[in-house]
Specification:
The complex is a heterodimer. In chain A, strand 10 and strand 11 form a beta hairpin. Helix content of chain A is about 20%, strand content about 25%. Chain A has seven helices and 17 strands. Chain B is mainly β. Chain B contains three helices and 28 strands. Chain B has a 28-stranded parallel sheet that branches. The chains are: A alpha+beta, B mainly beta.
Chain lengths: ~375, ~400
């Protein structure tokens, strides 16, 4: 073994140790009622020894295209009790068994070359400094909140936990929270904003995909969002295949036969696929035939056909001041005359879309949707 | 030095007036908001959330998702929830629940809609005041009282002022009573849209752009029909249209009393309708809104108003100063510079597929009685051949049954 390889092996060993530190964590605790006040009451993820650690059996995952949340980075995990698994579904959220705990930790890298302070966080897509093994390197990141979705007997329950200033514990915040933060871009630009932790009821705004049954559902764990590779402790593997392997999922086809949304930033993917993936994850939980926005006649989930249903020449229904003086949701070829990019570019409550979940404009996302609309043909000639 | 101080003071003042600046929230306000949110989260069927008299500033939109809850204030001028400078929306209060009652409080200055009830049955709104306190502005929230996709909805004894779209807006709902409300200085005072079985009576609609609207929009879950508009006072709705372009009501001319657009089976009777300067009653088609286009509108959408019956109303004034150059020109051409439109103006769009001998089938006709005339504006031909012949409108239609709320509201 050369010296270089030896060093590499040592490093790998150290990383594996880090990953294995959950050995001294108590087992994951599923609470089948009530609202535990501390995130650590669940033993899913815990801040220990400078790392946000994942407990044994807690499997991290990513989405092909994620929801935009004020440029926050996210660590998503899933845990299930022994002996049960989720049932695969090609289009909808997998059918998860009672006892499932899904977590999503919202965090930001500390701006490069800057000491940690109470407000400054990085606006960056670079995740290379985020991780320590499968967990998060707390010397490089600032944790804001961890949201849990817990599958109890009567359905899913959502609980937001807010991290303390010391980054040692997160406390239940059923009525949400507002934190004044400053995004610092890679080039040093600063943007002040209010990071809003949703209250428990606002969790439902997005997670109740069907407003008649009002039942909560996770949004991310669907085949088309999960069908991608993840860098697990023991190497890269497709997430659907991995979930099958560890017994958390049954009935999934091989990844090649499962649907897959594009990564909205993937330069190899088509503009159409990227835009549709973006609209699907950012808008489709409300703008679907059964969702909160089914009052509008505008559907933006991946199944929507590319015509008036997705907004082409469609007059708005109840946009009110949200039209921004534009006549149609999408005017093909004319993004600046279209309502959708106008509302994505707003941060005013009552005008902005999505209605909640962000306080800043996702510049790169808006640019994608504008480019997509600019590429469309057709016109909205008014009939008399 | 004094100058500098003054400058700073002015700068601070300016900053404080900025649109998105949160209004100062006292410790009291903050703990009130947190407590109210908690009460809404913990509510059980049968819970009554009493909000004592007081003026409370809230930063975040509220929501309720539990059936059978009552929210009750001490009076529409005593319990005030102010959302001035709200930082999280989208509404003031969003409700997704059945058997909901809200009464005797005010919601002011929301950035978006004030009170939205999305999907729910047995909804009662009683004695609620919604107001945008700076008066009509296009940056005001869109809708005041906004039940959508509801069944058995009652809106009564309430007040809405300043909505940049519709003050009281009932959308895609069934079985609705809207009574004894006052709608002022909104773009649309009261709007019934894509709804079935609505009784709108004993309301006052004044100083809006349009007083009472019964509309059908395309692409929605249901087409509306069967609305009765009666015993209302609809006068001097002459406020310039301050909706953003593209909004459904942006096409409503200032000076509109009662407007039917593309809706069917609408009965307008026993109202006092006066001094609406475009026309006291307008019957029109989606073609006249300038939004109708082939790609964006469902092929099965029916844009023609059918079965519209106007009778027994007391009209006064109005029609003397229509909004916009086109209508002004039309008025001058037909009635002279000093003349007025008659009480009822129809844009002239009729379904060509169902016409026989120049008339629609009997049940689809537009029947006008007790009016000083009807103008067929000939919209389909750009107002070229307007007609004042009232004969095509001399007919009657079967009367609609009253709306019965079942179960009866408890208030």
């Amino acid at each position: 073994m050369s010296m270089k390889m030896y060093k590499h092996a040592l490093l790998m060993f150290a990383l594996l140790c880090l990953a294995a530190c959950h050995r001294d964590m108590e087992p994951v605790a599923f609470h089948d009622e009530g609202y535990p006040t501390k995130l650590s009451d669940w033993h899913v993820v815990e801040a220990r020894d400078g790392v946000l650690q994942l407990n044994e059996g807690v499997v991290p995952y990513e989405l092909n295209t994620p929801l935009f949340t004020d440029y926050a980075h996210k660590l998503r995990t899933i845990w299930m009790p022994k002996g049960v698994s989720a049932q695969y579904n090609p289009t909808d959220t997998f059918d998860f068994p009672v006892g499932t705990i899904i977590s999503k930790t919202f965090f930001y890298p500390i701006p490069k070359g800057q000491p940690r302070n109470a407000t400054d966080i990085a606006r960056t897509y670079d995740t290379s400094r985020d991780f320590a093994g499968q967990g998060l390197d707390l010397s490089n990141v600032h944790l804001v909140e961890t949201r849990l979705l817990v599958r109890r007997k009567d359905g899913w329950v959502a609980m937001p936990y807010v991290w303390n200033a010391d980054q040692t514990e997160a406390t239940l915040a059923r009525t949400g929270d507002v934190q004044a933060l400053t995004l610092v871009s890679d080039s040093g630009e600063r943007e002040n904003f209010n990071y809003v932790v949703p209250d428990q009821s606002q969790c439902v705004s997005c997670h109740a995909r069907d407003w008649t049954t009002r039942a909560l559902q996770p949004i991310g764990p669907k085949a088309r969002h999960l069908n991608r590779d993840y860098h697990y402790a023991d190497g890269d593997q497709n997430q659907l295949a991995h979930l099958m392997r560890v017994g958390y999922l049954t009935g999934a086809p091989t990844p090649a036969d499962a649907p897959r949304n594009a990564n909205w930033m993937d330069p190899q993917a088509s503009l159409d696929a990227r835009a549709r993936a973006y609209l699907d994850i950012n808008c489709g939980h409300c703008h679907n035939p059964k969702g909160a926005a089914n009052t509008t006649g505008l559907t933006l989930d991946i199944a929507t056909s590319e015509d008036r249903h997705i907004g082409i020449c469609k007059p708005p229904t109840a946009a009110g001041q949200g039209t921004g003086d534009h006549l149609f949701d999408i005017v093909p070829g004319h993004p600046d005359d279209s309502i959708i990019p106008y509302r994505l570019s707003s941060t005013e409550p009552g005008t902005m879309m999505p209605e909640i979940g962000r306080s800043t404009v996702h510049k790169e996302g808006v640019a994608l949707i504008k480019a997509w609309i600019a590429s469309q043909a057709g016109d909205c000639v008014v009939l008399h | 030095m004094r100058h500098t101080r003054t400058l700073i003071a002015v700068a601070l003042l300016l900053a404080a007036c900025g649109g998105n600046q949160p209004a100062p929230q006292t410790q009291n306000d903050a703990s009130f908001e947190s407590k109210l949110e908690q009460q809404l989260l913990d509510a059980k069927p049968g819970s009554v959330i009493d909000i004592p008299a007081g003026h409370y500033t809230l930063k975040r939109g509220l929501s309720l998702r539990t059936n059978g809850v009552t929210i009750r204030g001490a009076g529409m001028d005593k319990t005030v929830l102010s959302f001035k400078g709200q930082i999280v929306g989208p509404e003031g209060l969003l409700v997704n629940a059945d058997d909901f009652t809200i009464e005797n409080l005010a919601i002011e200055d929301t950035m978006g809609d004030a009170l939205k009830i999305n999907q729910g049955k047995n909804i009662t709104i009683h004695g609620v005041r919604i107001e945008w306190t700076d008066g009509p502005k296009s940056t005001n929230g869109a809708y005041g009282l906004y039940p959508v996709k509801t069944q058995n909805a009652l809106v009564e004894d309430s007040v809405v002022i300043g909505a940049s779209d519709a003050g009281i807006y009932v959308g895609q709902s069934n079985n609705i009573v809207v009574r004894r409300n006052r709608a002022e200085q909104n773009v649309a005072g009261i709007e019934i849209e894509n709804s079935v079985n609505a009784d709108v009576y004993e309301n006052i609609a004044t100083k809006n752009t349009g007083g009472i609207l019964v509309f059908n929009m395309p692409n929605l879950s249901q087409a509306g029909h069967a609305s009765r508009v009666f015993k209302n006072h609809v006068f001097a709705n002459n406020t310039g249209n301050f909706a953003k372009k593209g909004a459904a009501v942006a096409s409503v001319p200032a000076g509109s009393g009662v407007v039917v657009n593309s809706n069917d089976k609408v009965e307008i009777f026993d109202n006092d309708i006066a001094d609406n300067q475009t026309a006291n009653v307008i019957i029109s088609s989606y073609f006249s809104t300038n939004y109708y286009n082939k790609l964006g509108v469902a092929a099965d959408y029916n844009p023609y108003p059918k079965g519209i019956y106007v009778y027994g109303n007391r009209f006064k004034g109005g029609g003397d100063s229509p909004d916009g150059l086109e209508l002004k020109t039309l008025k001058a051409a037909v009635y002279g510079i000093n003349g007025s439109f008659p009480d009822v103006v129809w844009d002239g769009y009729a379904d060509p597929k169902t016409q026989a001998d120049g008339l629609p089938p009997p049940d689809d006709r537009i029947c006008i009685q007790d009016s000083n005339g009807v103008l067929n504006a000939d919209g389909p031909h750009g107002y070229k051949n307007p007609s004042t012949d009232a004969k095509p409108f001399q007919c009657t239609l079967p009367k609609l049954p009253p709306v019965v709320l079942n179960p009866e509201p408890k208030v």
